[in-house]
Design goal:
seven-stranded mixed β-sheet; two-stranded parallel sheet; oxidoreductase activity, acting on NAD(P)H, oxygen as acceptor; 11 helices; 13% strand; oxidoreductase; single chain; 338 residues; Rossmann fold; oxidoreductase activity, acting on the CH-OH group of donors, NAD or NADP as acceptor; Sc_DH/Rdtase_CS; binds nicotinamide-adenine-dinucleotide; SDR_fam
């Protein structure tokens, strides 16, 4: 081991200059231009926004080209015009709310995957609302169990065959069980939670990712984790839920590193407490929890639906344009504070 390390070091040393550059080749400090007069540092172009130039590049173009029109582009950059999406757990709750957001952002078709054979009344009314927005937007309901890997792959392939593309995936289906002592936690219940919250998230991401690879347009996969993947809710005996969500955080990092080269981005999103059917199971039967959970939130409140959520986003953007990183962080912060 030591000898091979020495060999590597000795090979590397041949590539290094034996001496520092002679002083004569260094420019005296007095001849260097001040920083503010030097040209903006540039890298070879690796990716170009379809809306380029954007951000500061657009401002610089406007300064040098009077015919260039200054106009906001930030919403163009977030537009999902003509995109196709799938969202699991989208018959209600956060999944349905996020499906609606994708449709509002311009997605042409948002496929909502959930367990019941027929969608709920709330889903039907939301779908009708999307139709009325016009622009050819539509929501479709698909009955499937995220625990069925082959079933999920088949549904996504059918969607790909019909739509000719796949751009966005939100894996939101999840379950939370009653308090159960961690030292007595039954194997079958632990397995059930992992099956939906961890394996189901993987199968959903696989199903959409396979279609993204098939069509070669890249895409964006968002895995819904939870604050419970990073912290533990004191006084709540949720060892299965917390463990399942931690796994989702690492799944996102792992998949992001594997799929980045195919221009498929994978990120995780960790909501705080939000009033949905999942949390109503606790809040409706134990009203004191409302005050407790609200006081744990920096804003002193919990909310219903996604309009105002406390949120932590893990944005994994290897080698991405700094404009994109800036936008994502800013929007995440704005969302979490409204
Ligand atoms: N509500 C919160 O406070 C909160 C906080 C953090 C994270 N989350 C996460 O957000 C996601 C959505 O939660 P929610 O609050 O909207 O819950 P919800 O119970 O209202 O909705 C979950 C949906 O997932 C569906 N689902 C469950 N098992 C499924 C399966 N095997 N196959 C397909 N669909 C299945 C349910 O039918 C339901 O429609 C979950 O992953 C949850 O863990 C919620």
């Amino acid at each position: 081991m030591l000898s091979s390390t020495r060999a590597i070091l000795s090979r590397a040393s041949h590539r290094l200059p034996r001496h520092p550059a002679p002083l004569s080749v260094l420019r005296p400090l007095s001849t260097l231009r001040p920083l503010h007069e030097q040209a903006k540092p540039t890298l070879p172009t690796q990716s170009v926004s379809p809306h380029a130039p954007v951000g500061v590049d657009a401002a610089l173009r406007a300064a040098s080209d009077p015919s260039f029109t200054a106009r906001p582009k930030v919403f163009d950059e977030f537009a999902l015009t003509d995109r196709v999406a799938i969202v699991s757990g989208a018959n209600r709750g956060l999944g349905l709310e996020m499906a609606l957001v994708l449709a509002e952002a311009g997605a042409r078709a948002v496929y909502c995957i959930d367990l019941p054979k027929e969608p709920a009344d709330e889903w039907k009314k939301t779908s009708e609302y999307v139709r009325k927005m016009g622009g050819g937007r539509r929501m479709e309901y698909v009955c499937e169990d995220v625990r069925d890997q082959k079933g999920m792959w088949a549904r996504a392939r059918e969607i790909g065959d019909k739509e000719g593309r796949m751009d966005v995936c939100v894996a939101a289906a999840g379950i939370l069980k009653n308090h159960t002592d961690c030292l007595e936690y039954p194997a079958d219940q632990f397995q059930e939670v992992l099956d939906v919250n961890t394996k189901g998230v993987l199968y959903t991401a696989q199903a959409a990712g396979q279609q993204m690879r098939r069509f070669g347009n890249g895409g964006s996969i968002v895995l819904i984790a939870s604050m419970s993947g990073s912290i533990t809710n004191k006084d709540h005996a949720w060892v299965s839920y917390n463990s399942s969500k931690s796994a989702v955080l690492q799944m996102a990092r792992s998949m992001a590193c594997e799929l980045g080269r195919e221009n498929i981005r994978v990120n995780s999103l960790s909501p705080g407490h939000i009033y949905t059917n999942m949390t109503a199971a606790y809040l409706d039967s134990q009203p004191h929890l409302l005050e407790k959970w609200s006081s744990l939130n920096p804003m002193g409140r919990i909310v219903s639906a996604l309009g105002a959520i406390s949120l932590s986003v893990e944005v994994i953007t290897p080698g991405k344009h700094c404009r994109l990183v800036g936008l994502l962080y800013l929007f995440a912060c704005i969302l979490s504070s409204t």
